[in-house]
Design brief:
The structure is a homodimer. Chain A has 15 helices and two strands. The radius of gyration of chain A is 19 Å and the shape is globular. Chain A is an all-alpha fold. A two-stranded antiparallel sheet of chain A has the order 1-2.
Chain lengths: ~300, ~300
C-alpha cells in the first residue's frame, strides 16, 4: 500500500526521513512491478540491476513533482518506476565492453560481468520496453491522453533526441582533449539532463499541471540536471571507489574532458551552486508545497557520494 | 499523402500490385517518421537498418488488419511504422558479435559492421524507444485509451514476455542438439510469433474491433507466425545467400535445432501448409474484406526467399 499524500510544514519536514520513506516505497513498487517468470534468467538479470541499491532520485523527483502540482503518489508511481527502469537500462548498456567497459556499478559487478554480454544487452532492451508497457498498463486515475503525453515526453528524453543522442556525442569525443564547452553542455544536457528533466515534468503532467507551471518545473529540472552532472564529475575526482559504489577516477584515466577539467574543482562547485540557486527560485511560487523539492535540491549540492 | 481506403473485390484484387503499393506507402512513411538531425550519426545508423530493403510484411499486416475491421490506413500507419522499428531493432541487436555475430542482413553489411558495435547498440535502443514515442505522438483519429492498449500489447509482445524472452531461450539452447519440440515452439512463438501476432491484433485494436474478432485474428496470426518461421527454417537450408539477402545455412553451421531438423523438409512443408489452412479458416467470417489478408497468407506459403 502506498502512504497517503501528506504534505509537510516547514517545521515538521525531515528530509532524511522523507527520502528514506520514498526510497522504501519506490523499492517496494519496483519489486512488485517486475516479478520473475519464465525464462527466469532474463527477469533475474533485469532485476539484478533494477533492484541494486540506488538513491532512487529520479522516481522521487517524479513523485514529488506530482504531489507539488496537486496529484497523488498513486498517479505517479508507475511512471516513477518506469523512469528508474530507463535509467537502469542506460547504465547496463553504457557499461558494456563495446561502450564504457565498466566492471562495477552501484557497488556490484556490472550486469554483463554476471550474466554475460548477450543477456546484458537483452536485459537492457527488456527494461526499456517494459518501462513503456508499465506506464501504459499500470497508470490509474489519470486520463489516457495525459498518459500518452507522458510516454511521448519520456521517450523523447530517452531516445536519439535525448539520452541516446548524448551518449553518441560522448562516445564521439572520448579521449579527445579539445571538447568545446558547448559540446560538453550538449552531452550532459542530453545524456543526464533530459531524463532528469522528464522525471520532474512527467510527474506534473500526470497531475494535470498548467503549461506555465510545467515551464517553471522544466527550467528548475534543467538547472538541477546540470548541477547534478558537475557534482558527479567532481566526485569522480575526489571520491574513492568504496564511496562511489563504482570505479572511481575513470574520467581522468580516460582523459575525459569534464567540467572540473575545464573550470577546476572550486569554480565547478561555484557553478553548481549558482545553478541550484536559480533552480530554487523557480520553485518559490509554489510556496509550502515545494518544501520537499527545495530540500532535495539542497541535498544534491551537499552530497558526498 | 496516404491512398484512400479502397477495399478490393475478388475479381479485381491483384496481390502483387497491392503489396507493391503498401510497401511504397510504408517506405515513404518510415522515411518521413525518422528525419536526420544532430547527432547525425545515430539517425543515419537507425535509418540505415530501418530503410534497408524489406518486404514490410509486419506493417502491411497491421494496415490490412485495421482496414479489415473497419479502420483506415491513417489510423494504423504510425503503429505500422513502429512495428517495423521494433522488428529492425531486434535484428540489429540479434546480429551483434555478442549475440548471433552476423555480417549480412537484408543484403547489406549489418549495422555494427558499418557503424561499430557501440553505435549499433544505441541505434537499436533509439529505434525501440522511438517506436513507442511514435505510436503515442503520431497516432490520430483514435481514442487515447485504445492507443494505450496498443502500446501495452506491442510492448508485451516485444519484451521479456515476448521477443526478448524468445531470444533468451534461443541463446540458452544454442549449439544443443537435444532441444525439445515444446522449447522450439516456445522460442518461435515468442521470438517471431509474438510480434507478428501483435501486428495483426494492434491494427484491429486501433479500429475498435470487438473482443471476439480480436481473438479470431490473434489465432490467425499465431498460426501464420509459426508457419512463417517453419518456412524461414526451410529457406535457410534450401536458399543461397543472394536469394536470402543474409548469410545462408547459418542454422546448420551452428548445429541449430530447427523444425526441418526434427521433421525433415517435406513434413515441415506439410505442417506449414496445415497451419496456413487453419489460419485462413479464421478469416472466413470476415467475408470479402478479408481478401487481402487471405492473399497475403497464400503468398507467405509460396515465397521462395
Amino acid at each position: 500500500m502506498l502512504v497517503k499524500d501528506n504534505l509537510p510544514s516547514i517545521q515538521a519536514f525531515d528530509l532524511a526521513v522523507y527520502l528514506q520513506e520514498r526510497k522504501a516505497l519506490v523499492d517496494a513498487a519496483l519489486d512488485r512491478a517486475l516479478p520473475v517468470s519464465y525464462p527466469e534468467k532474463i527477469y533475474e538479470a533485469m532485476r539484478y540491476s533494477l533492484l541494486a541499491s540506488g538513491k532512487r532520485l529520479r522516481p522521487i523527483f517524479c513523485l514529488a513533482s506530482c504531489e507539488l502540482t496537486g496529484g497523488t503518489l498513486e498517479m505517479a508511481m508507475p511512471t516513477a518506476c518506469a523512469l528508474e527502469m530507463i535509467h537502469t537500462m542506460s547504465l547496463i548498456h553504457d557499461d558494456l565492453p563495446a561502450m564504457d567497459n565498466d566492471d562495477f556499478r552501484r557497488g556490484k559487478p556490472t550486469n554483463h560481468k554476471v550474466y554475460g554480454e548477450n543477456i546484458a544487452i537483452l536485459a537492457g532492451d527488456g527494461l526499456m520496453i517494459y518501462a513503456f508497457e508499465y506506464i501504459a498498463r499500470a497508470t490509474e486515475e489519470v486520463p489516457a491522453d495525459r498518459v500518452l503525453a507522458v510516454i511521448t515526453k519520456i521517450a523523447t528524453a530517452s531516445g536519439a533526441a535525448g539520452l541516446v543522442g548524448g551518449q553518441v556525442v560522448d562516445l564521439e569525443y572520448e579521449g579527445k582533449s579539445d571538447v568545446p564547452l558547448s559540446t560538453l553542455n550538449y552531452i550532459h544536457t542530453h545524456k543526464t539532463g533530459a531524463l532528469l528533466e522528464s522525471t520532474v515534468v512527467s510527474g506534473a503532467m500526470l497531475a494535470g499541471c498548467p503549461a506555465s507551471d510545467l515551464e517553471r518545473l522544466s527550467q528548475y529540472a534543467k538547472n538541477i540536471g546540470l548541477a547534478f552532472q558537475i557534482i558527479d564529475d567532481i566526485l569522480d575526482i575526489t571520491s574513492t571507489q568504496e564511496e562511489l559504489g563504482k570505479t572511481a577516477g575513470k574520467d581522468q584515466q580516460a582523459q575525459k574532458v569534464t567540467f572540473p577539467s575545464i573550470w577546476g574543482i572550486d569554480e565547478s562547485k561555484n557553478q553548481a551552486h549558482s545553478l541550484v540557486q536559480e533552480a530554487k527560485a523557480q520553485l518559490e511560487p509554489f510556496g509550502e508545497r515545494a518544501i520537499p523539492l527545495m530540500a532535495i535540491t539542497d541535498f544534491i549540492t551537499t552530497r558526498s557520494n
